[in-house]
Design brief:
The complex is a heterodimer of chains A (243) and B (191).
Chain A: H1 9-16, H2 22-34, H3 36-55, H4 63-69, H5 74-92, E1 120-125, H6 130-146, E2 153-158, H7 174-183, E3 187-191, H8 193-203, H9 219-229, E4 232-237
Parallel strand pairs in A: 1-2, 1-4, 2-3
Helix pairs in contact in A: 1-3, 2-3
Chain B: H1 2-16, H2 18-40, H3 43-59, H4 70-89, H5 101-104, H6 115-125, H7 128-138, H8 144-151, H9 155-174, H10 177-190
The chains are: A alpha/beta (243), B mainly alpha (191).
C-alpha cells in the first residue's frame, strides 16, 4: 500500500483549497514530497483549479449592460441600480402619487399606492423627451398652484440623458422653466452634475445650463439626499403624454 | 401621518447603510459578474442577475449585520437571483442533476478552438449545483463553510459536489489530450 492510497480525492481537494489545519497540511506536504504518484494527483488538481480561474478571468462583457446605461462605468451603472431600487421602494413602500398623476395617460410612473395629499415631491425625468418634460412641468405648475404654501416643494430632477433640456442654448423648454422659477420659489430644477462633467469632458467646454438650475449634485445623490431628510415623495416619470 | 413617519425612518435607516454597500458593490461587481457568467454562460443574463442582486443588496442593506461578511452576503443574494431565474425556467430545480440548457449554446466543445472556451464549455456541462460550488471555491476563493452558507446546503454537500465536479472535469480534460499540454503550458505561464 503506497502513501498515495491513504489520501482520498476529498482530502486532496481540502489541501488545494486550503481547508486543512496546519498539522494535516504539514503531513500532506511531507507525503507529497515522498510519493510521486500523490504529487502528480495534487499537481493535476492544482492545474484544474487554475484552469477554472483562467476560463473566467475575462468573461465576455454584456452589450446589454452598455446599452442600458450608456457608458457602462461602474459608478454610473451603480447609480442606475440605485435608481431602480428607489423605484422598487416607491412601488412597495407606500410612497404616494399626487392624485392628479393618476390622470396622466400612458404614464409608467412606478407607485400606484392609494392617493394621499403630499407636500414635497421629487419629479425624476429620465427620458430626453421634450413632450414628456413639458407635461411634467405642467404637472409641477398645477401642483404649486394648488399648494400655495411655501412648505410645499417640488424638485424637477433631470437624469443624465435629459441634460439637453436644461441647456440654455438648445432647450425648447427654456422659457417655460425660467417662467416657473420666476413665479414660484418652491420649485427647483436640478441638472445632473455627473452628466455635466461627462459633457464637459467630451466637448471640452461646459454646457450652458439655464440660470437658476441646480448643478451641484448628481441626480442620484440629490434624490437620495432628499429622501434622507424625510417627507419627500419620489416619482419617476418615464412616459407621459398628457395631463 | 404616523405611518408616513415610520416609513420615512425605515427608508432613512436603510439608506444610511447604503454607502458601505455601494462601495462594496463597486469593488465586487466584477467578481459577481464573473460568478454569474460562470453559472449561466450568457453575458446578458449574467448582467441581469448581477443587477438584480445589486438592487436587492441595496434594498436590504439593513440585513447585513457583519460588514466583514459582505462578500459572502452579496454572493448569497446573487445565488438566490440565479435560483429565481431557474425557478422561472423550470418548476422544480434539482441542482445536483440539472444541466442548464442555455449553457450548451456556448458551442459544441469540439468546435471550440481556444482553451478558455473549452474549459468554459466543460464547466457548462456540469450540473448547476456542481458548477456553482466549483466556481465559488475556485473563482471567488470562498471556504467550504462560506459556500455552505451562501448556498444554504450542508458542508458535506459542498465537499461532495466539489469532488464530483473535479472528477468530471478531469475526465473531460483528459478527453482532449492534444490540448491538455497546451493548457498546462498556459497555466504555467500565468502563475
Amino acid at each position: 500500500m503506497s502513501i498515495d492510497d491513504n489520501y482520498s480525492d476529498e482530502k486532496l481537494h481540502m489541501f488545494i483549497d486550503d481547508e486543512m489545519n496546519s498539522s494535516d497540511r504539514a503531513r500532506m506536504m511531507e507525503a507529497i514530497s515522498k510519493d510521486e504518484q500523490l504529487s502528480n494527483r495534487v499537481c493535476e488538481l492544482v492545474q484544474l483549479k487554475d484552469a477554472v480561474r483562467l476560463a473566467y478571468s475575462e468573461p465576455p462583457a454584456s452589450s446589454h449592460h452598455v446599452t442600458r446605461n450608456g457608458t457602462g462605468t461602474p459608478s454610473n451603472w451603480l447609480n442606475a441600480v440605485a435608481a431602480a431600487l428607489l423605484l422598487a421602494v416607491g412601488a412597495t413602500g407606500g410612497w404616494l402619487l399626487y392624485p392628479q398623476l393618476a390622470n396622466l395617460q400612458g404614464s409608467e410612473i412606478v407607485a400606484s399606492a392609494p392617493q394621499q395629499h403630499t407636500e414635497k415631491v421629487i419629479l425624476h425625468i429620465s427620458k430626453s423627451d421634450p413632450e414628456q418634460f413639458s407635461t411634467a412641468l405642467a404637472y409641477a405648475e398645477k401642483f404649486l398652484e394648488e399648494h400655495a404654501s411655501s412648505n410645499n416643494q417640488i424638485d424637477v430632477v433631470a437624469h443624465a440623458g435629459v441634460l439637453d433640456l436644461m441647456r440654455s442654448d438648445i432647450s425648447p423648454l427654456k422659457d417655460q422653466i425660467i417662467s416657473l422659477m420666476d413665479k414660484y420659489d418652491n420649485i427647483h430644477f436640478i441638472a445632473c452634475a455627473g452628466a455635466i462633467k461627462m459633457f464637459t469632458q467630451k466637448n471640452g467646454v461646459a454646457p450652458d445650463i439655464i440660470q437658476g438650475v441646480g448643478t451641484d449634485n448628481t441626480a442620484f445623490d440629490h434624490i437620495v439626499g432628499r429622501l434622507q431628510t424625510g417627507g419627500w415623495k419620489y416619482i419617476k416619470i418615464e412616459s407621459v403624454t398628457e395631463i | 401621518m404616523q405611518t408616513q413617519n415610520r416609513q420615512g425612518m425605515g427608508i432613512l435607516s436603510s439608506i444610511s447603510n447604503k454607502s458601505f454597500i455601494r462601495s462594496e458593490l463597486e469593488k465586487r461587481r466584477e467578481l459577481l459578474y464573473r460568478l454569474a457568467y460562470s453559472w449561466c454562460h450568457n453575458p446578458a443574463l449574467a448582467d441581469d442577475l448581477v443587477q438584480d442582486a445589486m438592487v436587492k443588496a441595496l434594498k436590504n442593506a439593513r440585513q447585513l449585520k457583519d460588514t466583514a461578511s459582505v462578500k459572502g452576503w452579496l454572493s448569497k443574494i446573487l445565488a438566490n437571483c440565479w435560483y429565481d431565474h431557474l425557478r422561472r425556467y423550470r418548476e422544480t430545480v434539482d441542482l445536483d442533476n440539472m444541466p442548464y440548457e442555455e449553457a450548451a449554446s456556448t458551442g459544441d466543445i469540439h468546435e471550440q478552438q481556444d482553451i478558455v472556451s473549452r474549459v468554459r464549455a466543460m464547466i457548462a456541462t456540469l450540473p448547476v449545483g456542481q458548477r456553482q460550488v466549483i466556481t465559488l471555491v475556485d473563482l471567488a476563493g470562498f471556504s467550504y463553510i462560506e459556500i455552505a452558507d451562501i448556498l444554504d446546503i450542508p458542508i458535506g454537500t459542498v465537499m461532495s459536489r466539489i469532488s464530483r465536479a473535479r472528477k468530471a472535469l478531469r475526465v473531460k480534460l483528459a478527453d482532449y489530450d492534444p490540448r491538455h499540454d497546451i493548457l498546462r503550458a498556459k497555466i504555467r505561464r500565468i502563475k
